[in-house]
């Protein structure tokens, strides 16, 4: 597996662990028979964890598709890998800013992550113009 493919897995695990951590740290208040109970997410930190989780679900498909498309279309693998690692780092920082209630920085990080996805997606189109 390539580094980028491991980053796809890491991104998947990140959004799963984001909500799992909120549930594990509140195990006495979390009712697994009602996992989507809105009352559980009334506490601000849990609401932010849920928001970060949902955003991770939304961001994941484009990232995974961009990585796979770039690899299938033979873009330079080292660029795909570097951008994928950068995306994962940005997503980790994004989760921390979401949990830390830093909306402006969070939006900046989201924009950077989206730009990285665009770059990965279009790597096959510009591969002939990239230095080896």
Helix- and strand-based class? mainly alpha
Main sheet makeup: none
Helix content: over 70%
Q: Mean pLDDT, rounded to whole units?
A: 92
Strand portion, in percent?
under 5%
Radius of gyration: 17 Å
Order of helices and strands: HHHH
The rounded distance between the terminal residues' Cα atoms is 21 Å
Number of strands: 0
Helical segment count: 4
Unreliably modeled segments:
none
Q: Write down the overall geometry.
A: elongated
Description:
With 132 residues, this protein is mostly helical. Helix content is 74%, strand content 0%. The protein has four helices and no strands. Helix 2 (44-72) packs parallel to helix 4 (103-126) and helix 3 (77-99) runs antiparallel to helix 4 (103-126). The longest helix has 29 residues, at 44-72. The mean pLDDT is 92.
Topology (elements, then pairings):
Elements: H1 3-24, H2 44-72, H3 77-99, H4 103-126
Helix pairs in contact: 1-2, 1-3, 2-3, 2-4, 3-4
Short description:
With 132 residues, the chain is mainly α. Helices cover 74% and strands 0% of the residues. Helix 3 runs antiparallel to helix 4.
Question: What attributes does this structure have?
Answer:
132 residues, mainly alpha, 0% strand, elongated
């Amino acid at each position: 597996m390539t580094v980028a493919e491991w980053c796809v897995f890491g991104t998947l695990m990140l959004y799963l662990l984001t909500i799992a951590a909120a549930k594990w740290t509140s195990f006495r208040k979390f009712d697994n028979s009602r996992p989507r109970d809105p009352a559980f997410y009334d506490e601000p930190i849990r609401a932010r964890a849920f928001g970060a989780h949902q955003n991770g679900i939304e961001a994941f498909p484009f990232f995974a598709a961009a990585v796979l498309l770039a690899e299938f279309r033979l873009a330079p693998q080292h660029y795909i890998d570097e951008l994928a690692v950068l995306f994962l780092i940005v997503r980790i920082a994004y989760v921390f800013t979401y949990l830390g209630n830093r909306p402006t920085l969070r939006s900046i990080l989201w924009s950077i992550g989206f730009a990285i996805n665009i770059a990965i997606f279009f790597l096959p189109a510009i591969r002939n113009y990239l230095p080896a």
